[in-house]
Specification:
It is a multi-pass membrane protein. The chain has 382 residues and is α/β, with parallel strands linked by helices. It has ten helices and 13 strands.
């Protein structure tokens, strides 16, 4: 709602938790030092112990999140409510001052929830949207039919609620990057999703016997997008489903170029994939961007796809896209990009890649002194 990224929200959440732990430990030490005794027969002390235990048990969902993220999240939320209730019971009931801070925090929380709920109701027009869900070539595609047209910036995401996916999905919302983009408010939102465990596996099950339609609810759009209007050259680097983060930027950049709102001269998409299935699944979306690029005959988009297979030769893939065998030669790509650009022009690199690939790119940028080159990490990293 405030345009804050998921990454920033998570960091603030972790920071708030650490501060709360430090304050609780300090409070417990000071209390034990001044009072000397700690009897559990006293209700206040018992609730204090429950609050401390609920904090310590938070380590359990941290250990479980790699096995089942949904279960870990619910345990974390439940323990947080237990902690808040225990703190409320622990605070002296005599006088308003001790409980005033808790009332203020609760009021801010409830106000934020009410505002978010009101925004969700407005954008969903006090009802539920319909979504067409399909699965093909190891890719889940979702198209939301909106009840009210919505304007999105490239790179923004929505939180999606699909109650029919499974029993647990009734209490879950999941963030997904919107791959469609238009300079006008959109009546449809397209999602390009990697099937994994948990919620995405439930989505896959919905379309097991073919495309299906389901009722959904969404919140958003969220995220403050990267500004790309000051660059003459844009290099987009993706691995696997990281292409989802770049698809809306491709269309926006091409539109901005044709309307002469940015000084953009060149766009190069470099995409590394493990097999052709995902490439074929995204081919229609990429060809749509290429078709828009050729509207006035002034081509600025080039697509290079690297397929990690020993049985692949250099071949054309659709219109003005080429498939190369092997891994992306990152150093060569960066060298060519710098050599082919105009002198003193700026290059922006948008990245949505696997961790190891990202580490290699960072190492290259640190080792070689590239001038006028800015790195931007997308919110979604596969």
């Amino acid at each position: 709602m405030l345009g804050v990224s998921i990454r920033t929200c998570r960091r603030l959440h972790v920071l708030a938790g650490l501060v709360a732990i430090l304050l609780a430990v300090f409070h417990a030490i000071v209390g034990a030092a001044t009072k000397g005794t700690f009897s559990l027969q006293t209700p206040r002390n018992l609730w204090a112990l429950i609050a401390i235990l609920s904090f310590c048990v938070q380590l359990i969902p941290l250990a479980l999140r790699h096995l089942s993220y949904e279960i870990a999240l619910r345990i974390h939320q439940l323990l947080s409510f237990v902690f808040a209730y225990a703190v409320w019971r622990h605070i002296p009931s005599v006088g308003l001052s001790p409980q005033l801070y808790l009332y203020i925090v609760s009021g801010i929380f409830l106000t934020a929830v009410a505002l978010q709920l009101g925004l969700v109701c407005y954008r969903n027009k006090l009802g539920l949207c319909r979504a067409r869900i399909s699965f093909d070539l190891n890719t889940i595609k979702v198209r939301l039919h909106l009840r009210r047209p919505l304007k999105l910036d490239a790179g923004q995401y929505i939180n999606l609620w699909v109650p029919a996916a499974s029993f647990w999905s009734l209490t879950q919302t999941h963030p997904f990057t919107v791959v469609s983009w238009s300079h006008k408010p959109q009546e449809f939102l397209d999602l390009f999703i990697q099937p994994r465990r948990g919620f995405t596996n439930d989505l896959n099950s919905l379309s097991e016997y073919g495309p299906t339609t389901s009722i959904v609810l969404f919140s958003g759009p969220h995220e403050q997008p990267w500004r790309t209007d000051g660059y003459e050259n844009i290099l987009l680097i993706a691995t696997g489903f990281g292409i989802a983060a770049h698809l809306p930027y491709l269309r926006k950049l091409i539109y901005d170029h044709h309307t002469r709102t940015v000084p953009l001269r060149r766009i190069h998409l470099v995409w590394q994939i493990d097999d052709l299935d995902i490439g074929i699944a995204a081919q229609q979306l990429l060809n749509k961007a290429l078709a828009e690029d050729s509207l006035d005959g002034d081509y600025i988009l080039r697509i290079s796809i690297y397929l990690q297979s020993n049985n692949t030769e250099k071949v054309s893939f659709g219109s003005r896209a080429t498939v190369y065998p092997g891994k992306v030669p990152l150093k060569d790509v960066l060298t060519v990009e710098v050599a082919e650009r105009y002198a003193r022009s700026k290059t922006g690199i948008l990245v949505s890649t696997a961790g190891s690939f990202q580490d290699e790119l960072m190492a290259l940028l640190r080792a070689d002194a590239y001038n006028n080159l800015d790195l931007m990490l997308m919110e979604y990293q596969p």
